[in-house]
Design brief:
The protein is mostly helical. It is built from ten helices and three strands; from the N terminus they run ααααααβββαααα. Helix 3 packs antiparallel against helix 4 and helix 9 packs antiparallel against helix 10.
Amino acid sequence: MKVLLEHGQLEVVIRAAVERGDWVCAQESVRELCAAGEFERAEGVMAPFVALGWRPAVWETARILVRAGQVKQCSRCFSWRCPPRKDGWQVTDFADVGRPSLAKLVQQTGTPAVVAFFLDSDVGFIEALTPDGMSWEGLLNRRLATSYEIPLEQFPVEPAVAGAVAWSAAAGLTPDEEAIRQTLAGSALFAEELFSALLVALGLPGAT
């Protein structure tokens, strides 16, 4: 297969990946396509494997989106899981959320919402919204995010802290600003750990 690539036969390798379901060929095809800036084609190579629920293909698709500069689109690849909370706060698990669905959720419930998307438990993407349109977004586990080539400058800490504090207050909660800052700037073995700490910092009832 590498001999084929060395002789410029990328299309042959792509066909082997798509038509025969050859995972190694798919990985090599994606590497070559991304290097050439053909990110949409690279995502297409991964699509059949993603459709089968193959987790490595989901992660690879997220990496393609990152390399394409579409970091915030990674959220459509992942789901949100968290234990139930108290005092009217409800938790659910979405297979495909993204900002449009978040807006629809808030509109339908008339209540604030916060969602988290996890990239292989290494990195977390946070989005939050209130019924009056107040929103903020953040990144969890910045140290590990660099290994996914996620541009940290797209997720500055201080604006996220300010947005989180304002969102929490608008939701009728009592935020801990410094704890929020430490969570958004900190690191952990699993991004889910930071999300749990963030919920506590936001003041969600029963989050401890």
